[in-house]
């Protein structure tokens, strides 16, 4: 992780050819949402198809092989199906508020399509696009685990606590730096959190009393964060908690059936506390691609801090992200970052991307004009990881 500050005078901008433009965007935002909603509806049926294929294969094994462990495997798969049904219920509850019209696509219009996404390429459409959406839906329960469960708190703490500590330090630094008589109030400190997933990090920043805006471009993440932040109440105003099985779809490195059936209740906190806060601070979400959403003049010099968690490597052009962050910050404002350099498009056949080393990245950060406040340090942080898995990927 690192913290850098925007200095008064830029040392010079790094220039780099644009990488976008591998095809024009023909995919409407509403259609994208519609397809994701369909994938949510198909989650159970899709699993059942997979399960049937597995059972068929198992039943084709020699009888003796089936007899060794058949009762255990069949019982485990039966239990897994129950867990998957529970996850499907969670998705159905979420979709219901869109069908009711109180959280529908209108509230989640994405700012811009991102050019070059394979989903936007008509030739890529059909089966591949559906499979990509299904895979997102299958994986999203692990993201819900990371952000909105008691069980995920340990993982969150490894990432969010260091970020929040640095944000506190940067807030104090900014306050002492400004020469005005009237010191900046906590709620006046404006923090932007691009690629905020399901919105937990912005919520934690708001809980620290600062004003915050989350930004996210994934339709499924937007739907779920909207659901968890705004819709999990009964008509009597009681917080409704949902049970999910985040790792029920895992097949690898599982120690036992019980581990696979780890079940969690969501959300772990009542997000209404935000609405009840009377300090004048703001909380908002901006739907859309980060660079496109904050390109306009009004976004420039508008934020005291940008906080990024596991976001930088989602870029096709990471230099464009860095330039955008720099332009968004007020003079003396800070960018605090944590996360690996596991570039999302590095192995893509469809999408071009630039993959810089940490060393190269720090050169860009310097040449774009940032001053290093807190040099690079390494924290061990898992990401949406099954705590019981025999294989633990930890980002250093
Ligand atoms: C690895 S996740 C990190 C989520 C969250 N920050 C966390 O630490 O749990 C990266 C997030 O960035 C989002 N994202 C990727 N590219 C984006 C873009 N161009 N604009 C906005 N969000 C983006 C993804 O949809 C995803 O939710």
Automatic annotation (TrEMBL):
BP GO terms, sorted: methylation
Residues in the signal sequence: none
The enzyme's E.C. designation: 2.1.1.22
GO MF term set: carnosine N-methyltransferase activity
Record keywords, A-Z: Methyltransferase, S-adenosyl-L-methionine, Transferase
Recorded family membership: Belongs to the carnosine N-methyltransferase family.
Name listed for the protein in its UniProt record: carnosine N-methyltransferase
Organism for this UniProt entry: Porphyridium purpureum
């Amino acid at each position: 992780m690192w913290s850098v500050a925007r200095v008064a005078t830029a040392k010079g901008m790094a220039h780099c050819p644009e990488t976008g433009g591998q095809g024009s965007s023909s995919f409407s935002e509403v259609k994208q949402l519609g397809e994701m909603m369909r994938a949510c509806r198909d989650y159970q049926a899709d699993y059942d198809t997979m399960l049937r294929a597995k059972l068929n294969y198992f039943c084709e094994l020699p009888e003796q092989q089936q007899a060794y462990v058949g009762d255990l495997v069949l019982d485990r798969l039966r239990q897994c199906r129950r867990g998957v049904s529970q996850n499907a219920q969670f998705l159905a509850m979420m979709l219901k508020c869109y069908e009711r019209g109180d959280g529908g696509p209108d509230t989640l219009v994405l700012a811009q399509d991102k050019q070059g996404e394979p989903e936007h390429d008509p030739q890529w459409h059909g089966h591949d696009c559906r499979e990509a959406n299904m895979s997102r839906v299958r994986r999203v329960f692990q993201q819900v685990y990371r952000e909105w469960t008691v069980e995920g708190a340990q993982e969150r703490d490894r990432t969010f606590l260091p970020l929040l500590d640095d944000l506190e330090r940067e807030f104090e630094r900014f306050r002492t730096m400004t020469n005005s008589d009237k010191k900046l109030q906590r709620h006046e400190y404006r923090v932007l959190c691009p690629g905020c997933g399901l919105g937990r990090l912005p919520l934690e920043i708001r809980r620290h009393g600062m004003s915050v805006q989350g930004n996210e471009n994934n339709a499924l993440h937007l739907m779920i964060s909207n659901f968890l932040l705004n819709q999990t109440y009964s008509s009597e105003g009681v917080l409704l908690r949902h049970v999910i099985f985040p790792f029920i779809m895992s097949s690898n490195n599982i120690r036992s059936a019980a581990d696979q059936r780890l079940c969690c209740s969501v959300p772990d906190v009542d997000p209404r506390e935000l609405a009840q806060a009377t300090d004048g601070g703001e909380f908002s979400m901006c739907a859309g691609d980060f660079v496109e959403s904050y390109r306009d003049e009004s976004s420039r010099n508008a934020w005291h801090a940008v906080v990024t968690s596991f976001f930088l490597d989602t870029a096709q052009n990471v230099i464009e992200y860095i330039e955008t962050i720099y332009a968004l910050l007020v003079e003396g404002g800070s960018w605090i970052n944590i996360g690996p350099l596991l570039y999302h498009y590095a192995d893509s056949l469809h999408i071009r991307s630039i993959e810089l080393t940490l060393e190269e990245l720090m050169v860009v950060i310097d040449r774009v004009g940032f001053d290093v406040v807190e040099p690079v340090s390494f924290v061990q942080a898992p990401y949406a990881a099954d705590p019981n898995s025999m294989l633990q990927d930890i980002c250093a």
